[in-house]
């Protein structure tokens, strides 16, 4: 009976060590992502380095997603078919989101850009003072009388 307890303690210690390792890895990835994100604050929108940092952050996010799915959803020790039943629909869902975002952006870009009321509304209009009449109004009243 004592031998079983030793095996259970050894297994628990190994599992605990693995959880600590994954938690430390996720924490380090998160801190690196935050540091990279804060470093982008003063960069111009179209600079190459900003796009490079965004790409690095995306790669780090995918690594975090892998660790979360593998360890906290307990898929690391599952059969390949079981993993595919979860990962394949997840991939299709991500593709679905990307397709709808691209379609929405395409619709926004293909809309008719000519809107005459937008152009006319940008013309400044002279504001009259209170109780001031325009010249044409006075002449019209005289002609009617």
Automatic annotation (TrEMBL):
GO cellular component, one term: plasma membrane
One Pfam family this sequence matches: COX4_pro
Topology versus the membrane: Multi-pass membrane protein
Keyword Transmembrane: yes
Stretches for region Disordered: 125-145
Alphabetical UniProt keywords: Cell membrane, Membrane, Transmembrane, Transmembrane helix
Protein name: Cytochrome c oxidase subunit IV
Species whose genome carries this gene: Hydrotalea sandarakina
Upper lineage: Bacteria, Pseudomonadati, Bacteroidota, Chitinophagia, Chitinophagales
